[in-house]
Specification:
Rossmann fold; 35% helix; single chain; 27% strand; six-stranded mixed sheet; alpha/beta; four-stranded antiparallel sheet; Alpha-Beta Plaits
């Protein structure tokens, strides 16, 4: 039987009359990478705060690393790490001072703390920055420092909230190499991201919108099962105009520029609107069925929930 790092059932959080998270249920196996996606305000951060033991659920049950969400929040916090989207360390301390301070919070002292800091400085490539003030660090180095701080106490479960939101492609690749290495070492990672190419590396992905879990599965399962209609693409030089035309057309649920083409979702059985496209761009290529990506799935799911009452 697979051991679970996270196991929640009907998890709900209300703020007055507003339901931020509405009866969410999911499981995360130990050692896996779990992507948690959704538009801004969908309930991602509130869910993570409950899993961190920071925010009590209004209703529902769950365990994190075998500890009860309601009765053992302090035990949960001692075993999990969290890297927030916004840099939350002390800007008026150096890299080393930040790591020493947060190491002390996690109960690390003396030679044990020194050894752990040395390990993390090497792991996160912070050599040469130890005496630099956090406020003066480039954005990518600040993200590395935040990752190092979240790993000081060697957590079994790590929550990463948009870890690559403000870094260059090479550093994005580095972060995902580290995430993969942690998973291979038996650590569990729950990550949010707006980069759909990144979350292809997750073992499983859940989509949340308006506080409700609307889809869950592996990347391949989601691309196979969750598109609301058939997916087409057409190459055109007038991508914005063609996308606007298609978005207004009956039978088209979504249309959006992507690279050198426009991708559009149509209800099954509706033929591509090639004649209308060529009125805008006579040189547009013939529309063809497209291979779905996670971005297509995300747009399809978002479109379907926006249309729901």
């Amino acid at each position: 039987m697979t051991e679970l790092a996270v196991d929640v059932h009907e998890l709900t959080r209300r703020f007055g009359q507003f339901v931020a998270v509405d009866r969410v249920s999911f499981q995360i196996p130990r050692g896996s990478i779990f992507g948690f996606l959704g538009p801004n305000g969908a309930g991602k951060s509130t869910t993570i705060r409950m899993l961190l033991g920071i925010l009590a659920p209004s209703s529902g049950t769950g365990t994190v690393l075998g500890r009860n969400l309601r009765t053992e929040p302090e035990a949960i916090r001692s075993k999990v790490g969290y890297m927030s989207q916004k840099f939350s360390l002390y800007e008026d301390l150096t890299v080393l001072e930040n790591l020493e301070f947060f190491g002390g919070i996690f109960g690390l002292w003396g030679s044990a703390l020194g050894r752990r800091i040395e390990e993390l400085v090497e792991l996160t490539r912070l050599q040469g920055y130890e005496r630099e003030m956090a406020a003066q660090l480039p954005g990518g180095i600040r993200q590395r420092l935040a990752l190092a701080a979240s790993l000081l106490h060697d957590p079994e479960l790590l929550f990463l909230d948009e870890p690559t939101g403000s870094v260059d492609p090479s550093l994005r690749r580095y972060f995902w190499e580290r995430i993969g290495a942690m998973s291979e070492a038996g650590k569990t990672v729950m990550v949010t991201s707006h980069y759909m190419d990144e979350v292809e590396r997750c073992h499983e992905i859940a989509f949340i919108d308006r506080g409700r879990l609307i889809a869950r599965g592996s990347p391949d399962e989601l691309k196979r099962d969750q598109l609301r209609g058939s997916l087409w693409r057409v190459e055109t030089r007038r991508r914005v105009d063609v996308a606007a035309l298609l978005a207004r057309s009956p039978g088209v649920d979504a249309a959006y520029p992507s690279g050198l083409s426009v991708r559009f979702l149509m209800r099954r059985g509706v033929e591509p609107l090639e004649a209308a496209i060529r009125q805008i761009d006579p040189e547009a290529a013939r529309a063809e069925v497209a291979e779905p990506t996670l971005e297509d799935v995300f747009i399809s799911l978002a479109t379907s929930t926006q249309a729901a009452p």
